[in-house]
UniProtKB/TrEMBL annotation, chains A, B, C, D:
Pathway(s) where this gene product acts: Carbohydrate metabolism; tricarboxylic acid cycle; isocitrate from oxaloacetate: step 1/2
Molecular function terms, GO-annotated: citrate synthase activity
A GO biological process held by the record: carbohydrate metabolic process
Domain of life per record: Bacteria
Keyword vocabulary terms for this entry: Transferase
Organism, as annotated: Salinisphaera orenii MK-B5
EC number: 2.3.3.16
Similarity comment text for this entry: Belongs to the citrate synthase family.
Annotated protein name in UniProt: citrate synthase (unknown stereospecificity)
Length: 261, 261, 261, 261
C-alpha cells in the first residue's frame, strides 16, 4: 500500500492557545456580541457575513422552518426520549433522521426546479410566463407533483408565503425566482383546476434562489432549524410526556386483531 | 385492556387553515420579520420572548457552541456523508449522537454544580468564598474533576470566557453564579497548583444559572447550536471532502500489524 | 504541536487482494457456510468461536431481544421512515437511538448488580441466600428498583424466563448467577409482598454473567438484536404504513385544547 | 377535523399475560432453542421459516455483510463513542446512518437491475446472453456503473463471490440470476477491457433475486448485519480506542494551513 496520502484541510475554523477564529473572524472579538444566531449560521454555511437585508430575509426563512407542530419527526424524537432520557442528543438525532425527501425535500426540490428552468445566468429578458407554462406542462406530462405547491391544510393560501415574500420584497430580494414561482402557481392552478397555494417550502425554495444558494444547501437549513424545534419538543416531553401514552395506545390497537381475548 | 387513555397535549404550536401560532404568537404576523433565529430559539425553548439584554447574552452563548473545529462529532458527520450523501439529515444526526457526557456534558455539569451549591433561593448574603472553598474541597476529596474548569489548549485563559462574562456584565446578567464560578476557579488553582481556566462550557454553565435555565436544558443548547455547525461541515465536505482519505489512511494503519505483506 | 502520534490499530479484520480474515479466520473458507449469524455475532463480539452449548444459549438470548412488538423504538423507526423512505438505514438508526437506560438498560443493570454482589472470583461456598437477602435489603434501603425484576404485563411469570433458564440448564450454563437471580426474586417478593417475576432482561443479565460477558457488552446484544427487529418493522411499514395515521391522530388531539374552532 | 381514523395494525408480534408470539409462532415454545439468529432474522423479515437450504444460504449472505473492517461507518461509530460512551446505542446508530447509496446501496442496485432485465415471470427460455449484452450496452451508453461489479482491492476475483455462489449452488439456489450476473460480468469485462470482478454486493444481490426478495429489503440485510459488526467495533474501541487519536491528528493537519503556529 504505497498510497500517496492526499491532503486533508478545512477552512472553517482554527484555534491556538489564545485565539479562536471562525470563517476568518475572531470568535471572541468579532463574532460574540456582534452576531445573532441567524447571522452566525449564515456565516458558518456560506462563509460570508450577511448584509442587513440578507440578515432579515435569512432569519425569516430559517425561523419558518423551526417549528411545524407535532410532526412525525417530533414524535420520533419524543418516543426516543422516552427510552433514553439520558441522551437528549440522541433524541434530537432520531428526529432529524426523518427530514428526508417527503417533507423537507420539497424545499430543495423547489429550488432545484427553479434553477433548472431559469439558470442564474439566464438572459435578463427571459420570458417567465413561457417558462412557467412549459414547466407546468412538463411536470403534468411526467405526472410529477410540482415541488413547493399545494398544502393539505392551508388553502387557498399558506399564511407564511405572502409574509415571506413581503419580507423579501421589503429587503430588495424578491426578484425573478419569486416572480417565477408565482407564475408557476397560476399556471398549475389553471391547468389542474385545483387550489395549489405556494406553500412555505416553495416560498423558501424561491427565496433561496434569490440568494443564489446551491440547491443541496437548502435542506441543510431545514435540518439545522428543525434541530432547534426538536429541542423544544424534548423539553416539553420531559415535563409533560406523551411518548409512553402513544406507545400503549398504538400497541393495544395494532395487535388487537391477532391477540387472543 | 380496559386502560383509560390519558390525554395527549402539546402547548408549543398549532395551526388552522389560515393561522399558525408558535408559543402563543402568530408566526406570520408576530414572529417572521420581528425575531432573529436566536430569539426564536429562546421563545421555542422557554416559552418567553427575551428582553433585549437576554437576547444579547443568549445569542452570545449559543453562538459560542456552534463551531468547535474538526471535532469527533464533525468527523462522524463527514464520514457518514461519505457513505450516504443523499441523506444530509442523517449525517447531521450521526454528528449529534456523540454530543454526550464527554464534551457537551461539562456545560450541564457546571450548571448543576452551581445550582447545587448555591440554590436559586439561597439567602442574599450567602458566603461565596466559603461555598467555593467547600465545593473545591468536596470535588478533590471525591477525586472528581470540577466541571467547567481546565482546557487542553487554551491556557492560562480560554479567550471566550472573559468575553462571555463581559457581555453578561454589560447586560446586567453577571450575578452571583458568574461570581461564584470565578471564585471556584481561584480556589481550584490554589488547591491544585495547576492552571485551570474557566473554559467556555464553564462560563456558559454559569450564565445559564443567571438565566435560571434548568440544568438539563443546557445540553439542548449545545445540541441545537452544533447542528448548525455540522451543516457547515457537511457543506464543506461536499465540496472538499476528507472522509474517504481519513478512511483509507486509518484502515491502512490500523491493520498493518496483522495484514500479510 | 509536536505531538507524538500514538498508534492506531484494530484486531477485528483485515483484507488483502485475495484474502479476507475476520477475528483470525478466513471469511470465505472458515466462516461462510460454517457459521450461523448468531455464532458469527459471538465471534465478532468476543473474538471466540462458541462451543455448541454456548451457541445454543447465546442464540436464544439474542433472539429473545429481536422483537418486542410495537415499542417506542419501533414507532420512532416507522415515523422516521414516513419522512425519509429513501433512507432505510436512518430509520433503523432512529429506532436504535431510544435503546437507552429505560428499557434495554435493565439488562445491563441486572448483570452489573450480579457481578457486584457475586464477583466472578467469589469463593465456591459463597452463601447465595445471604447475598440475596443483603442485596434486596440494600436496594430497598436506597429505594431503588432491582433491575431485571417485575413486568407490567407478564405476571406472575414472564414466559421467556423459565424457557431461557431451561435452555441454559440443558447446556450446562445455569450456574451460580442464575441461581442467585432466582433467590433475589424470592427475597424481593417476600419483602415487598408483590409479584416480581424475573423478566426477560433479568434472565438474560444472569445468563450473560454465566458466560462472563462484561456488563457493558450486554447492552450491545440488545442493540444488535433490535436492529434486526427494526428492519422487520420498517418492511411492514413500507407495505402497511401506520406512521402518517399516528401523526395525524396525535397532532389533532395534542393541540385541540388551544386550536380555535 | 372530522377525519375518519384509519385502522392501525401490525402482524409481526403480540403478547398477553402468559403468551408471546412472533410471526405466528410461540417465542418461548417454538422459537427459543429451535432457531438460530439468522433463521429468526429470516422469519422476522419475510414472515416465513427458512428451509434448511434457505437457512444455509441466507446465513452466508448476511454473515458476509457483518464486518468490512475499518469502514467510514465503523469510524463514525467509534468517534461517536468517544464523545458519548454512555450511549452505546447512539454510536451504533451513528454508524448505521452512513449505510446509504455509496457502499451498501450497490447491493440493492444489483438486485433491482437483475429484476428489471429479467423479471421473475420471464419465460423459461429467456436468452441470458442477449440480456447480458443488452444490459452492459445500456449501462455503457448511459455512462453508468454496473452495480455489483468491480472492487478497488479484490482483483481479479473477490474471494467472497465464488464461495457465496458455491454455497448457493450446493443448496440448489444458484439459478438464472446467478447465471445472469456472471454473464453480465463477462460482457462488462470484454466491453471495457478492465477487470470487473463480481463483488460481494453483486453476488448477494443476485442470490437475493434467487430468493425472490424485493429489492428494497436487501438494504435492510446490510443494515441489520452491520449493526452486529458495529457493536464489535465499539467494544474494541472501549478497550483500545482510536477515536481521540484520529481526532487530534486530523484536526492538527486540517487547519495547519491557516493556523498561526
Amino acid at each position: 500500500m504505497s498510497r500517496e496520502p492526499r491532503p486533508i484541510r478545512s477552512d472553517i475554523a482554527w484555534s491556538t492557545r489564545d485565539r479562536i477564529e471562525v470563517r476568518g473572524k475572531s470568535l471572541p472579538d468579532e463574532i460574540l456580541g456582534h452576531f445573532n444566531l441567524g447571522d452566525l449560521a449564515y456565516l458558518q454555511l456560506t462563509g460570508k457575513t450577511p448584509t442587513e437585508a440578507e440578515s432579515r430575509v435569512f432569519n425569516a426563512i430559517v425561523i419558518t422552518l423551526v417549528e411545524h407542530g407535532i410532526t412525525p419527526s417530533a414524535l420520533a424524537a419524543r418516543l426516543t426520549y422516552a427510552g433514553a432520557p439520558e441522551s437528549l442528543q440522541a433524541a434530537v438525532a432520531a428526529g432529524l433522521c426523518g427530514l428526508g425527501t417527503v417533507f423537507v425535500g420539497s424545499m430543495e426540490g423547489a429550488a432545484k426546479m427553479l434553477y433548472e428552468v431559469l439558470p442564474t445566468d439566464a438572459p435578463a429578458d427571459a420570458d417567465l410566463d413561457a417558462i412557467a407554462k412549459q414547466t407546468v406542462a412538463d411536470y403534468r406530462a411526467r405526472k410529477q407533483i410540482i415541488p413547493g405547491l399545494g398544502h393539505p391544510l392551508h388553502k387557498p393560501v399558506d399564511p407564511r408565503t405572502p409574509r415571506l415574500f413581503a419580507i423579501a420584497e421589503d429587503n430588495g430580494m424578491a426578484g425573478r425566482y419569486v416572480e417565477l414561482m408565482g407564475r408557476i402557481q397560476v399556471e398549475a392552478e389553471a391547468a389542474s383546476g385545483k387550489q395549489l397555494p405556494i406553500n412555505a417550502t416553495g416560498a423558501i425554495g424561491a427565496i433561496c434562489c434569490e440568494f443564489g444558494f446551491p440547491g443541496h444547501i437548502v435542506r441543510g437549513f431545514g435540518v439545522m432549524a428543525r434541530a432547534i424545534g426538536l429541542v423544544g419538543h424534548i423539553l416539553e416531553e420531559s415535563e409533560n410526556p406523551m411518548g409512553v401514552e402513544i406507545w400503549q395506545r398504538i400497541e393495544d390497537e395494532a395487535t388487537a386483531h391477532i391477540r387472543p381475548e
